[in-house]
Amino acid sequence: MGLLYLIVCAIKHPHGQLRYREIWLWGSLICQGLVLLASPRDCFGFKQGADCTPPVAGFAVVVVLYFIALMGFLITLRIEPAKTQG
Prior knowledge:
The structure is a single chain. By secondary structure, the chain is mostly helical. It has a domain at 53-85. It has helices at residues 2-12, 22-38, 56-76, and strands at residues 17-19, 78-80. The longest helix has 21 residues, at 56-76. The chain is elongated and about 60 Å long. The chain crosses the membrane at residues 23-39, 59-77. Keywords: Membrane, Transmembrane, Transmembrane helix.
């Protein structure tokens, strides 16, 4: 969804300058990594019948933080029109 938004904005303003707040970018990247680390997984077949699923509450918290960081990044994302010389 975010990538689609960037593509549409880039098509509308082909010579524009992309502006964003770096803190939101790094926050969303860190949270995305945490989502991957905390995602529930199944170990059936590795250890027959062993439960390898981490606590679901921890995963839910990380997902909520990821969505907050992603929305913050997308809200602060701006494309400034190219400056005309004149």
